[in-house]
Amino acid sequence: MLDDTALPDLASRLAEIIATHRDREGPLLPILHAVQAEWGYVPRSAIPVIARALNLSRAEVHGVVSFYHDFRSEPAGRHIVRLCAAESCQAQGGAGAGRGGVGEAGDRHA
């Protein structure tokens, strides 16, 4: 588990991001994208702050972060490899490419 409190200026920068997007229609996704652009992931400590600002529950914000695969709850590794898992990619042998790469990389994160 990460210690989000070590992030410099988390509270002040998060307040700026929320203020920039809060009056938009459907502000949650733009806020989450901006937060991730700022820190490389959505810090756990940002979730209750965002929820309070948008009058949402923490569960609703966490649900959006965990539902969309583009959002991270921890910093990404140095290299990120994304493989297509759609049926059309599998039909062209994409699943085999993924199995080979996982063994080489030594780590698998679904």
What does this molecule look like?
Its cofactor is [2Fe-2S] cluster. GO terms for molecular function: 2 iron, 2 sulfur cluster binding; metal ion binding. Keywords: 2Fe-2S, Iron, Iron-sulfur, Metal-binding, Ubiquinone. With 110 residues, the protein is mainly α. The protein has two domains: 4-67, Orthogonal Bundle (Arc Repressor Mutant, subunit A), CATH 1.10.10; 78-110, no CATH class. The chain contains six helices and no strands.
Order of helices and strands: HHHHHH
Derived structural class: mainly alpha
Mean of pLDDT: 83
Radius of gyration (CA) equals: 17 Å
CATH architecture of the largest domain: Orthogonal Bundle
Question: Helicity, in percent?
Answer: 40-55%
Kindly estimate the percentage of residues that lie in beta strands according to DSSP.
Answer: under 5%
Our count of domains comes out at: 2
State the separation between the terminal residues, measured CA to CA.
Answer: 18 Å
Largest sheet, in brief, is: none
By DSSP (H or I, 4+ residues per run), the number of helices equals 6
Shape verdict: elongated
Low-confidence stretches: none
Assigned CATH class of the largest domain? Mainly Alpha
Number of strands: 0
Cofactor: [2Fe-2S] cluster
Pfam families: 2Fe-2S_thioredx
Family: Belongs to the complex I 24 kDa subunit family.
Keywords: 2Fe-2S, Iron, Iron-sulfur, Metal-binding, Ubiquinone
Task: Give a quick summary of the entry.
With 110 residues, the chain is mostly helical.
